[in-house]
Task: inverse folding
């Protein structure tokens, strides 16, 4: 089976800093893959390469076996903060991609998505009038409005409180169950990664490369019981050990 | 599942636009009570001034009573009106030229940080030097018509608009530009859909300050030379010690200044209020 996304020996240098080096993995179609790793290990750098926003210094990212050389309509992007344009109201923000592309907006689909994320009735609100969770839901609608085949999400809920975050996680799962969009999800929450993913990839500290790769075979939708199971507990500890093992190595090196 | 909408959010965000300025608070009077109080204070101040000047019999050539100024304004209005028109012609043409050039320069120059570094000192010199000082020179070269005035006004407005607009255009948010690029936006689209709206609050600040500077320069240039314009009326009336008429013209000039402020305040409220 050809992977939806294939990251092949990806490397990125900023000046004389190696942000990413020899990073390779595949993302199967219609799956959710999470990427966790210490802060500054190159996760955003990697995601931007996958979205075609910037190139790599070495290696490549393929979409359906074709090298990505620039932004692609098949790929949607959700940013770290909601990244809504503050001078446009919510609907203005959601129609922004269509405006840029000079395309007629797919209103039934947009209305469906708005309803799905609970934003119906808030179309005219300005971003500053919306809570952080609502803003991020708006940005998810914006990213999905063009029906992308792949959705790249960069720590989308990092700035939200724990309750809102769990709610958003369930929402992402629901949306995935409906659309089966391939999702690459960057997070620094191991629990969030396990809850959402079919696979969790652990990156090493900078320069980032794959240091562990776990398959999460839990049934969906993932209930509280499943998340409280022994299996999840063990996996969580395993991933923690991977990450903290890295940092203990770093502190040893510093001695 | 729907979050409650907080009424006040992000109070900590720094406000750069006009609507956030301290001056704007006076334009926020909304309730009938507030308006009544503001009017009452105005009546007391003007009435008090009238009474004091009358009681102490202050001579007209020092400070005419408000009632005399009002009477002079009414009586002289047909005579002053054309001069108001001449002043507006100089102000508006100079402003249009200066503001247009300033905005275009700001938009272009901020795209090239090195060019910006090279030209900023000169712009600063232009901002800080009173362009009024050039008027005698401009008159020597261009005569007593509109030309020297319009040039002086444009030179006063342009750098002021440019320096503020440049601050606005420099406020680039790489995430927002990345967002636009991820949808395949062209450089031009990024300019019009991201950079320009983001710069708008600062552009409006620049336009307003520029317009006020333009008004100062217009009147100053009219006082220096040429037989027309409100500035010329000021010199004429003061040379004849027609003080009520002199102050009537001053009153008109403050009305223009306030109008400039109100117009930009309202534009800011309509188009740049997302900042506050
Ligand atoms: N545009 C850039 N120029 C220089 N260095 C950068 C740039 N972007 C990121 N970096 C550096 O590359 C490393 C990886 O950054 P990033 O991909 O944002 O990490 P993460 O998202 O995992 O926290 C960091 O050390 C960061 O400082
Ligand atoms: Mg990051």
Result:
């Amino acid at each position: 089976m050809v992977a939806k996304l294939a990251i092949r020996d990806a490397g990125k240098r900023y000046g004389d800093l190696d942000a990413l080096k020899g990073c390779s993995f595949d993302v199967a179609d219609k799956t959710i893959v999470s990427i966790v790793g210490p802060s500054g290990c190159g996760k955003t750098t990697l995601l931007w390469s996958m979205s075609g926003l910037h190139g790599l210094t070495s290696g490549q990212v393929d979409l359906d076996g074709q090298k990505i050389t620039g932004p692609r309509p098949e790929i949607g992007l959700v940013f770290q903060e909601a990244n809504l344009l503050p001078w446009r109201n919510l609907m203005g923000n959601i129609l922004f991609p269509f405006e840029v592309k000079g395309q007629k907006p797919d209103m039934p689909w947009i209305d469906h998505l708005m309803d799905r994320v609970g934003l119906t009735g808030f179309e005219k609100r300005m971003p500053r009038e919306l809570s952080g969770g609502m803003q991020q839901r708006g940005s998810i609608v914006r990213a999905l409005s063009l029906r992308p085949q792949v959705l790249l999400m960069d720590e989308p809920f990092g700035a939200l409180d724990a309750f809102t975050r769990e709610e958003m996680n369930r929402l992402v799962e629901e949306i995935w169950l409906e659309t089966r969009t391939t999702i690459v999800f960057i997070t620094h929450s191991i629990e969030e990664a396990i809850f959402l993913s079919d696979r969790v990839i652990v990156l090493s500290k900078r320069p980032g490369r794959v240091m562990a790769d776990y398959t999460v075979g839990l049934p969906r939708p993932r209930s509280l019981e499943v998340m409280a199971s022994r299996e999840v507990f063990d996996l969580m500890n395993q991933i923690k050990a991977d990450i903290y093992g890295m940092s203990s190595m770093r502190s040893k090196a510093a001695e | 599942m729907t979050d409650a909408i907080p009424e006040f959010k992000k109070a900590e965000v720094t406000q750069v636009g006009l609507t956030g300025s301290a001056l704007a608070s006076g334009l926020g009077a909304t309730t009938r009570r507030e308006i009544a109080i503001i009017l009452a204070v105005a009546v007391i101040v003007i009435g008090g001034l009238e009474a004091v000047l009358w009681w102490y019999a202050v001579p007209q050539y020092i400070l005419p009573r408000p009632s005399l100024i009002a009477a002079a304004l009414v009586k002289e209005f047909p005579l002053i009106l054309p001069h108001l028109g001449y002043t507006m012609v100089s102000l508006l043409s100079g402003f249009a030229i200066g503001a247009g050039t300033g905005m275009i320069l700001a938009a272009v120059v901020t795209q090239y940080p090195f060019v910006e570094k090279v030209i900023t000192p000169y712009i600063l010199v232009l901002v800080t030097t009173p362009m009024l000082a050039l008027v005698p020179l401009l008159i020597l070269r261009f005569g007593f018509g509109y030309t020297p005035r319009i040039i002086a006004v444009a030179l006063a407005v342009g750098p002021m608009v440019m320096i503020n607009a440049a601050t606005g255009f420099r406020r680039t948010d790489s995430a927002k530009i990345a967002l636009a690029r991820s949808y395949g936006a062209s450089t031009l689209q990024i300019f019009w859909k991201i950079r320009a709206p983001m710069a708008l609050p600062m552009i409006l600040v620049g336009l307003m300050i520029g317009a006020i500077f333009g008004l100062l320069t217009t009147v100053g240039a009219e006082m220096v030379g040429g037989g027309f314009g409100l500035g010329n009326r000021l010199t004429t009336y003061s040379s004849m010690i027609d003080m009520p008429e002199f102050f009537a013209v001053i009153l008109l000039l403050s009305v223009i200044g306030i109008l400039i402020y109100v117009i930009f305040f309202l534009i800011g409220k309509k188009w740049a209020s997302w900042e506050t």
Chain B touches chain A at residues 1-6, 9-10, 175-176, 178-185, 189, 193-194, 197-198, 200, 272, 274-275 (CB under 8 Å). Chain B has two domains: 24-57, 64-271. The two ends of chain B are 28 Å apart (CA to CA). The mean pLDDT of chain B is 88.
